[in-house]
Write a structure and sequence with these properties.
Keywords: Aminoacyl-tRNA synthetase, ATP-binding, Cytoplasm, Ligase, Nucleotide-binding, Protein biosynthesis. Helices cover about 45% and strands about 10% of the residues. The protein is mostly helical. Among the domains are: about 85-255, Glutamyl-tRNA Synthetase, domain 3 (Alpha-Beta Complex), CATH 3.90.800; about 305-400, Glutamyl-tRNA Synthetase, domain 2 (Orthogonal Bundle), CATH 1.10.1160.10; about 420-510, Arc Repressor Mutant, subunit A, CATH 1.10.10.350. It binds one RNA strand of 75 nucleotides through strand 6, strand 13, helix 12 and helix 18.
Length: about 500
RNA sequence: GCCGCGUUGGUCAAGGGGUUAAGACGCAUCCCUUUCACGGAUGAAUCACGGGUUCGAUUCCCGUACGCGGUACCA
């Protein structure tokens, strides 16, 4: 057990877009696996046929690919423990459930959904709003524990729909050591007899996770904190199946909470507060609902991953920016924070900004091309890359390159003349008229010669250079923004610069 | 209700019996820059509460409060 190879798994159910909390779970699995030279398995938990969503599995795969957190084994690449889709393993689970029945650790239950409903409403009180199918209640239900063996046999023989439930001990203290929280204790009496095998023959999560973790030789199982309450069921299953010595070590990850108030972060919070929650764009094929993702919003995958790593984990130093290699080297489950973390989009933007500034201009240009295309702008990647170099310092998102540099691609449509108008006069007007003709004669339209001629003329006309720079900026950009103004002129080129001066002059005359 | 897990500035968080209780994001002011941003400086802002234990608790123990999660033939 101790010397067993590290094998971890991410086990999503393909029911929709991949939540940022899901990606963080992937990340922690991935880091742990890489650090310990182990395997990272992707297993699709599609045991609920009613919740299956077309395209969700491919979407998850694509998210992992985008983040660079690919699995070593999974439905997409196969592996020694295939198949990796639980629906394709369906036949496997029944024998274990039957085995448990045979050994007296589980039982058949024939209660119909209506009967269960009836039981719950009948037993429901203010003191007990959610009655459980537990060690007391089971004695009064239609199951093989209460029925005579002949009755059970008859029901089975006639193909009566039934489930198999675990028989939880009435009162037993059990505990396990969580890698993050340390010892956690439960009493089995407080947990109900969970269904293990559904009437349709599919296992529930509880059975499938134990069987598959065993069969796939999973050494460490990481999942969200919302699973902590069902840990006792899983512990009992590992015992009852006789695999106790193979049980993986568990870590229950803290939840990612919504920024305002408390509670698990959901897609809805993102819609409401205007930030992405899913890794990539997701369109629900059933409802047609469309949700924006981090990727399409202009986040860089390495920034996204770095940001996620810091949500609930740190290495104990002041370092916040980590390459994936550093994360692999430094990650440890013991340093994961115990409490949930509120998601903060501002901080996420800061991370992205850090990575944008560092990123290669060519690469950013490529990422930005689709946005440009959307705006109906034609430009060479080369040209875009130089623009990127000038504006990326002030961008948090790749898509913001447009906001900070649109005037490189088209003449401004709107001009904010208000900072110029009050101090505008005939001298200044004359300056720009004269300067335009000076520019016309310039053989070298470089940053320095443009700036030089600007300053020379201003001095000779006895106007402060500073008084003219802002007007010039607005002539080129349309407002008080953008990189250094002579850089803009140089990039725009002689023809366009003069054209913009002349156009703005007519606007100022109006 | 019951069970479980949590609680250090607005947010992410380090620390762990004696500290001026780090750092980052955000915010504010200033410097740089005659735009904005970057950068630099400064500042406001924190140990949920009550009992123990102790010479001394933010740190250990016990309660309380609050928050979250679970309580499905969903995962």
């Amino acid at each position: 057990m101790e010397h067993q190879k590290v094998r971890v798994r991410f086990a999503p159910s393909p029911t929709g877009g991949l939540h940022l909390g899901g990606v963080r779970t992937v990340l922690f699995n991935y880091l742990f696996a890489r650090k310990h030279k182990g395997d990272f398995v992707l297993r699709i938990e599609d045991t609920d046929q009613t919740r299956y969503v077309e395209g969700a599995e491919e979407y998850i795969l694509e998210c992992l690919r985008w983040c660079g957190l690919n699995a070593d084994e999974g439905p997409h690449v196969g592996g020694p423990y295939a198949p990796y889709r639980q629906s394709e393993r369906k036949e496997l689970y029944r024998q274990y459930a039957e085995q448990l029945v045979k050994d007296g650790y589980a039982y058949y239950a024939f209660d119909t959904p209506e009967e269960l409903d009836e039981m719950r409403t009948r037993l429901k009180t203010e003191e007990n709003p959610s009655p459980q199918y537990n060690h007391i209640v089971r004695a009064h239900m239609r199951n093989s524990l209460r029925l005579l063996p002949e009755e059970t046999a008859a029901l089975l023989a006639t193909g009566t729909p039934h489930v198999i439930r675990i028989k939880m001990p009435a009162n037993e203290e059990i505990s396990f050591t969580d890698m993050i929280r340390g010892d956690v204790q439960f009493n089995t009496g407080t947990v109900d007899d969970k269904v293990l095998l559904k009437a349709d023959g599919m296992p529930t999560y509880h059975l499938a996770v134990v069987v598959d973790d065993y069969l796939m030789k999973i050494s460490h199982a990481f999942r969200g904190e919302e699973w902590l309450p069902s840990a006792p069921v899983h512990i009992m299953l590992w015992r009852y199946l006789g695999w106790q010595n193979h049980m993986p070590q568990w870590a229950h990850l803290p939840l990612i909470l919504r920024p305002d108030g408390n509670g698990k972060l959901s897609k809805r919070d993102g819609d409401r507060l205007g930030f992405p929650v899913y890794a990539m764009n997701w369109k629900d094929p059933r409802t047609g609902d469309f949700t924006k993702g981090f990727r399409e919003m202009g986040y860089l995958p390495e920034a996204f991953v770095n940001m996620l790593a810091m949500l609930g984990w740190n290495d104990g130093t002041e370092q916040e920016l980590f390459t994936i290699e550093e994360l692999i080297e430094k990650f440890s489950m013991e340093r994961v924070h115990h409490a949930g973390a509120k998601f903060n989009i501002e901080k996420a933007n800061w991370f992205n900004h850090q990575y944008i500034v560092k990123a290669d201009n060519q690469r950013l240009a490529q990422l930005f091309m689709p946005v440009l295309k959307e705006k109906g702008v034609q430009a060479s990647e080369e040209y875009v890359a130089t623009i990127v170099g000038m504006v990326k310092e002030r961008c948090n998102l790749v898509n913001e390159i447009w906001d900070h540099g649109f005037f490189f691609f088209q003449q401004p449509e709107n001009y904010d003349l208000s900072p110029v108008k009050p101090k505008w006069n005939a001298d200044k007007r004359q300056f720009f008229l004269d300067w335009a003709s000076v520019l016309e004669t310039l053989s070298d339209f470089s940053l320095h010669s443009v700036e030089e001629s600007f300053k020379q003329l201003a001095t000779s006309m006895n106007i402060k250079v500073g008084e003219l720079q802002l007007p010039f900026r607005i002539m080129l950009c349309g407002g008080k923004f953008g990189p250094p103004v002579f850089n803009i002129a140089e990039t725009l080129g002689k023809h366009e610069t003069i054209a913009r001066i002349m156009k703005a002059l007519t606007l100022l005359d109006a």
